[in-house]
Specification:
alpha/beta, Rossmann fold, Arc Repressor Mutant, subunit A, five-stranded parallel β-sheet, four-stranded antiparallel β-sheet, 9 helices, 11 strands, 20% strand
Length: 235
């Protein structure tokens, strides 16, 4: 799920947080002094930093100021100080969130997941072109090529392809696709999404009986398989 750097001088608290995060699928590195962070970031690229405010050698505010211009990932402050000044200052110098001690593990996990989702969404929105093997999708020009040959898609078909491809490897539910494509909630009866998926499969040379490029995941939705296109590229 991601690599988290935890900077906390309270060893008992640090171990409890690290254990909880590891149980929830994260890889966790720990530091216990503020002056160790810059050197760590020169060698590693964690997906998120949990940074205590009151640290030995160098406090969390100072660390955040030093790393914020070069470190673009989320930073969460841990603070025992329940004052507006600390909260505002932390956010102004570049922190994404703060949590007041004592730390409630499930609250921390929820904040981490929220920031990770926001980061992932932001990265997706900044992408203009996607390439999977011999399939290339160009968002700005709305062009698609397969084995260097142009694929003619309607506006709706392109939007469907982009939605699935930008989330490659993750099933997208019929309800979500319907909402994004048609602009209203799915009523359980409308088959517009299924028809569009079927047409898109044909144009992309997918097998209609046993599709392997845009896969139906029963109970979850449709999944764009990036590995299927890579196999084509390898062959």
């Amino acid at each position: 799920m991601g690599h988290i750097l935890l900077v906390e001088d309270d060893l008992r608290l640090a171990n409890l947080i690290a254990k909880f995060l590891k149980q929830n699928g994260f890889h966790v590195s720990m530091l216990h002094q503020g002056d160790s962070v810059v050197n760590f970031l020169q060698k590693h690229s964690p997906d998120l930093i949990i940074l205590d405010v009151m640290l030995p050698k160098e406090d969390g505010f100072s660390v955040c100021r030093k790393i914020r211009n070069s470190y673009a990932q989320p930073i969460i402050f841990l603070t025992a100080k329940d004052s507006d000044f600390d909260h505002v200052l932390g956010l102004e110098i570049g922190a994404d969130d703060y949590i007041i001690k004592p730390v409630e593990p499930h609250v921390l996990l929820a904040r981490i997941n929220m920031l990770m989702r926001r980061k992932k969404h932001s990265e997706k929105m900044s992408v203009d072109n996607l390439t999977f093997g011999q399939l290339s999708i160009f968002k700005t020009s709305r062009q698609v090529t397969l084995s260097s040959e142009p694929i003619e898609l309607t506006s709706h078909e392109f939007e469907l392809l982009w939605l699935l491809a930008i989330n490659a490897g993750e099933p997208q539910s019929r309800e979500y696709i319907h909402k994004q494509m048609i602009g209203r909630e799915y009523d359980g009866l409308d088959r517009s999404v299924d028809v569009r998926v079927s047409r898109l499969r044909k144009k992309l040379g997918d097998c209609t009986k046993n599709p392997y490029r845009i896969i139906t995941v029963w109970g979850k939705g449709y999944l764009f398989s990036s590995s299927a296109w890579e196999e084509i590229h390898a062959s």
